[in-house]
Specification:
The chain contains four helices and no strands. The chain is an all-alpha fold.
């Protein structure tokens, strides 16, 4: 599966606005994707770049970067 939205790469501000537009909290997004809340928060607020591990997975799912999420839950 490629990035969650399957299209344009967006900025953290745009991703946060999209979450707010859907009425979804960061915590709900994190739970839905089995990610730590702190990691999602840090990626959205530019405290983590989303290069490795869970931060990379969060960035891909938020549409902040291109990438592939493997069925096992890891990111490539």
């Amino acid at each position: 599966m490629s990035n969650a939205q399957g299209s344009q790469i967006r900025t953290p501000e745009q991703a946060l606005a999209e979450l707010k537009g859907r009425g979804e909290t960061i915590a709900a997004f994190a739970r839905r994707h089995a990610l730590p809340y702190a990691t999602v928060y840090q990626v959205l607020h530019k405290q983590k770049k989303g290069v490795y591990g869970e931060a990379h997975r969060a960035a891909v799912l938020l549409g902040l970067k291109a990438g592939v999420i493997t069925p096992e839950g890891g990111a490539q």
